[in-house]
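Researcher: For the annotation table, I need structure tokens for Elongation factor P hydroxylase. Please keep the output clean. Sequence:
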Amino acid sequence: MQAPHCTQAAPAGVVLDGHQLADLHAIFAECFAARYNTVLVRGADEPVYLPATASQAQHHIVYAHGFYASALHEIAHWCIAGPQRREQEDYGYWYCPDGRNAEQQAAFEQVEVKPQALEWLFSRAAGLGFRVSVDNLSGEACDPMPFRRAVHAQVQRYWQQGFPQRAGLFIEALLNFYQTRALFEPQAFRIEDL
């Protein structure tokens, strides 16, 4: 899974807009470390999910280059993955890197709708902006509007039908930590902002 719209790296322990990576790690750990034996790990290159092994006691959600948005995106994937998926590297999902043709891009976008919808919710709860990412800079050009519409529609479904359990818990923790509850409402999620 590629990190969406990451444009700047932050120095160790610090992220832009006053957001500290250490805070995000602590919020995640408080919500999930004990119950799910899972930790958030700052990676150097590509993000990846690594299940626990005999030599690695905890499951690792590895995000790219110290990007806060990458961490939120990888947490979103984890919040969607069921128990069997969480026992497989990168949840056992298909992934084709940047440079996808139109058919591959359509498949990529289909599996990215829910994670990017959750990432948008997480970003808003943390008081950050969000832009969808088609993550295919060197591939065939595509119209991003259908994907934007799909992500927006998924966010609205989450508001109507409820958030996935782990995602809801994480959103609540972000809202409490960043004190953004007043900004977190269905009307705040506008397709024009994507």
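Researcher: And a one-line annotation?
Model: The chain has a mean pLDDT of 86.
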